[in-house]
Amino acid sequence: MKKNIILMLFIGPACWFHGAYANEGLDLNSAVLKINRDVKSLNNEILSLKDEIELIKEDQRKNSEKISELSQIIELNLSNNKKTKDTAKKIQANKANKLYSDGKNEFLLGNYGQAITLFTNFAKSSPDSPNNKDSKLWLARAYSASEVYLKAKDAFLDYQANNQEHSKYADSMFELSRVLVKLNEINDARLLLSEMIQQYPSHSLINKATQLLSDL
Which contiguous run of DSSP H or E holds residue 4? Predict the structure, then answer.
């Protein structure tokens, strides 16, 4: 009986320790399994994020290509618009130059009314043309040849207003003086002829100017 009691006292604690270690082992296994599950879940999330990043990169690449294509289209349109505008300007300039050259031809043919119309239209359509100064002078001459002297006077004065350095300025002084004579503005004609003779003593029209002044 006594031996049985001693055996139970030895075996009881041993069993208790064995059970405790067994439970501890189960807890560790559960923890390891949980960690493995968490790691697997994180790996899956990482893979998912990588896929999303790749998709974002692909979208960015496509957007960059679209932006590049749009930029090229815009540049092409701007270039085409510039070419169109340049072409339109050239066509307009050619039309304007034709008005000017046709006006001179009509003047030389003695069609002064038609010349006046052409020079007037030229001035309206091409105010910045390099032929604008000459056109104003030819318009004044056409009015003078048509014996519309008041308009001829205004046209000559319009030409002279900002063209003192023009090669035909002295010619216009002599031609305007004759218009002033026709308008019976003799004193103004004398003053203009005197000014011309003084400023342009070597001009090809100087003899005619001197003679006209003498006649007045």
Answer: helix 2-108
The reported pLDDT for the residue numbered 59 is 81
Cα 55 to Cα 60: distance, rounded to the nearest angstrom: 9
CATH number of 195's domain: 1.25.40.10
* Residue 72 CA: distances (Å) to CA of 67, 75, 76, 168: 9, 5, 6, 51
Number of independent structural domains in the chain: 1
Contact yes or no for 120/128 (Cβ under 8 A) = no
Give, for 171, the enclosing helix (H) or strand (E).
Answer: helix 169-182
Q: Which of 13-22, 50-59, 61-70 has the lowest mean pLDDT?
A: 13-22
Q: Does residue 170 contact residue 206 with C-beta atoms inside 8 Å?
A: no
pTM, two decimal places? 0.58
Among 147, 151, 150, residue whose Cα is nearest residue 185: 150
Query: By residue range, what is the domain housing residue 110?
Result: 98-215
